[in-house]
# Entry
Amino acid sequence: MTGGIRSLPDLLSHALAIETEAVERYTMLADQMEVHNNTELTAIFRKLAHIEGLHAKEIEERAAGLDMPDLKPWEYEWGGGESPEASDPTEAHYLMTPYHALKMALAAEQRAFAFFNDLIGKVEDGEVRKLAEEFADEEREHVSLVEELLERYPEPAADWDDDPDPPALQE
Ligand code: ZN
# Structure
């Protein structure tokens, strides 16, 4: 899946796409938790959006002056146009609980980690491999952060989405 990434610009363009999508995801999750009046997770997701945004900016700075590939969505190595950190926004319907929000975040961070970790064993170029290691470390930290949060927000009862009073039926 990552066989086409050989150069620094290849890696940076993929990392930038991952971070940019992460910012969008965490912003969406923060908005969602705000609707649920969960101030703790709203703040955490906003902070994560900020951190991923800083990473994106760092990557842009590293990429400045490099001959960056102008990739179309389908030309990225993950195929299908969706980066490993992307998630389906339709999953975030109005009943999403903190547990579900965190599960979505966890899945995305794990995919991002797997993406960079997979690269480490594949790239020949030492500089590219070093950067892939750096990115994998960062994503590993995100994974454990979300895992810690999940311990505080366990899975809700199986009937969590049985809304006794769905908005569409209110008269
Ligand atoms: Zn991340």
